[in-house]
Design goal:
Elements: H1 3-14, E1 22-26, E2 38-44, E3 62-68, E4 71-77, H2 88-91, H3 93-100, E5 105-114, E6 124-132, H4 160-173, E7 177-184, H5 193-202, E8 206-208, H6 212-220, E9 224-234, H7 246-268
Parallel strand pairs: 1-4, 1-5, 5-9, 6-7, 7-8
Antiparallel strand pairs: 2-3, 3-4, 5-8, 6-9
Helix pairs in contact: 1-3, 4-7
């Protein structure tokens, strides 16, 4: 039995009769989105074999099942990060487990820094593409053909139809939704001003320390992917004398959670998930 099959089996036993076709991953400071879940049942990551326990404040490490907008969903309240020292295969184990549980669509959220002057803290940005700046990849090593092929296309890493549904959800919920390219930097340090200038030249619109490994594993497994960043700050050097810290990320994340919740609730009403 593979690690993801063992984890899926443990979840079925912990949450009997629970299933879903859509799953959400909640990033830094966004865990309160889970408060909107109705008829919730949960299991701690610590009780799921192989699941890495997040070690960063703002990531609870809980898998929740329930309904949002009348639709059954799995919600990962928190995630592990490469900078914590977790192997990338462990970081993407929850995604592979969700695929084994039968989900078809994965919606990822994260906290990110803006690289665009007009995209201010408090904004939401839908990911249209990404840049993997880390040089790391969870798919390095032997390929599990039961999950997906050795080589696979990433031209449409972020599903076109799901992106259209997010736009409709933004309009219906009266939430301003920017669109752009996310760059994954390994962390844990915030970027230098020189790095931020370079990333802007490369065409990135936001920078963060997560999400891309999960996208790679999800697309490898054939899942449809959508992702939204909550913009917590400007990149280093973009605001004179601003010092970046994680507390600022969590504070902004709590503010962003309200608009993120409204957006996701409308998005989940869309018939694209049927």
């Amino acid at each position: 039995m593979t690690a993801y099959e063992a984890a899926a089996d443990a979840i079925r036993k912990a949450l009997p009769g629970r299933s879903a076709r859509v799953a959400l991953v909640l990033g830094s400071g966004l865990g309160s989105v889970a408060d909107a879940v109705e008829n919730p049942a949960s299991v701690s990551f610590a009780d799921i074999p192989g699941f890495p326990k997040p070690r960063v404040e703002g990531h609870h490490g809980t898998l929740i099942h329930g309904t949002l907008s009348g639709r059954e969903v799995f919600v990962l309240q928190g995630r592990a990060h490469a900078y914590e020292g977790h192997p990338l295969a462990d970081i993407v184990l929850p995604v592979r487990t969700l695929a084994a549980l039968g989900i078809a669509s994965l919606v990822l959220t994260n906290a990110a820094g803006s690289l665009q002057d007009e995209m201010v803290p408090g904004s939401l940005m839908m990911l249209t593409d990404h840049i993997n700046w880390s040089g790391a990849n969870p798919l390095i090593g032997p390929n599990d053909a039961a999950l997906g092929p050795r080589f696979f296309d990433m031209t449409q890493a972020y599903d076109v139809a799901l992106r259209a549904a997010l736009r409709r959800g933004a309009e219906a919920s009266d939430v301003a939704l920017h669109e752009g390219i996310y760059l994954w930097a390994l962390g844990p340090n915030f970027e230098t001003p020189a790095e931020i200038r370079a990333f802007r030249i490369l065409g990135a619109d936001a920078v963060g320390m997560s999400t891309v490994p999960e996208v790679l594993a999800a697309r490898h497994a054939g899942l449809r992917v959508a992702a939204v960043s909550g913009i917590t700050n400007f990149g280093a050097g973009m605001v004179a004398n601003e010092i970046l810290d994680h507390e600022h990320t969590l504070t902004q994340g709590a503010t962003i959670a309200e608009s993120m919740t409204r957006l996701l609730l409308e998005f989940l009403k869309d018939s694209i998930h049927d």
